[in-house]
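Need a sequence for this fold. Nothing fancy.
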């Protein structure tokens, strides 16, 4: 991953891993931001786990919880307008971003982010 060796990535990853509170929150934010930047759930999850997984594991996170929160997080910001699947879906159905993206945003971005909140709270309390 060429971008992960840049000084900018180091600054951002240091900032994300030092967010106060539960490391689950920073794990969620780091993974969803990477998925949004790449426009890909699998890309964001892969980068997050490859570059930050050991850091969060060393913070004491249970590997199962780490994986579940990261997997949920990768499905949030990945559906931003530059996502390949969003562009393809809109092209196939003959709609523009202006016509239909608000519906995609509500179901593929807002709903997963809201669904993650109780999961993070419960995981923080029990793990």
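Here you go.
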């Amino acid at each position: 991953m060429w971008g992960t060796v840049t000084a900018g990535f180091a600054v951002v990853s240091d900032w994300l891993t030092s967010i106060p509170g539960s490391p689950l929150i920073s794990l969620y934010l780091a993974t969803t931001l990477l998925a949004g930047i790449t426009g890909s759930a699998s890309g964001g999850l892969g980068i997050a786990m490859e570059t930050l997984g050991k850091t969060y594991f060393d913070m004491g996170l249970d590997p199962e919880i780490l994986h579940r929160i990261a997997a949920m997080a990768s499905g949030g910001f990945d559906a931003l307008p530059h996502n390949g699947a969003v562009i393809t879906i809109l092209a196939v159905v003959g709609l523009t971003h202006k016509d239909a993206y608000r519906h995609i945003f509500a179901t593929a971005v807002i709903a997963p982010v809201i669904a993650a909140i109780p999961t993070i709270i419960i995981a923080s309390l029990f793990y």
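For context: The helical segments are 7-17, 23-38, 41-58, 63-74, 84-93, 97-126.
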